[in-house]
Amino acid sequence: MANRDALRAFQSRLASRLQAARTSDVSASWLAVEAGEAKYLFPLGHAGEIFPWVAPQSVPYTAPWFLGVANLRGGLFGVVQLSTFATGAAAPPVLNETTRAQSRLVALNELLEVNCALLIDRLVGLRGVDAFVASEAPQEESPPWLGHSYTDAAGGRWQEINLQALSQQPQFLSIGA
């Protein structure tokens, strides 16, 4: 009897939360992440599943930003270190246990048809347009996968990354060294 009452209470709470989510004006547009020294925004429609750190199997003769391949929920995914790819800087040293605990692999949405996961250093959460006080269009010489940059109330700069455009770039698809 107690289990039945607990189940009813749980179902009631779940139904009220779903209803509140449907009627609230809060809308998230991006997944906010940190990679290296930068803060990035991934459009929610482009981001896929988020996985804990899994050490990839290295692949010889590849670009320094391509870490290798990993089995993520039964699928084979290429793992790209976002901070190294985006900045072109040398790859940082191997992750220590503390850093590894916060790191995540963000898979690209399966609709993009690229089995790839981006290594990020830390998930920050969901962000909407209302979380920012200013925005700037990308500069003309910027790569086509960079979107607007946004400034939050604390003065932090967030760079939007169009994962769909990134997944179609020849330099992203060419992992050979």
UniProtKB/TrEMBL annotation:
Q: Which PROSITE patterns match?
A: CHEW
Pfam families tied to this protein: CheW
Which InterPro entries did the record assign?
Answer: CheW-like_dom_sf, CheW-lke_dom
Report domain CheW-like positions: 27-172
Write down what this protein is called: Chemotaxis protein CheW
Tell me the organism: Variovorax ginsengisoli
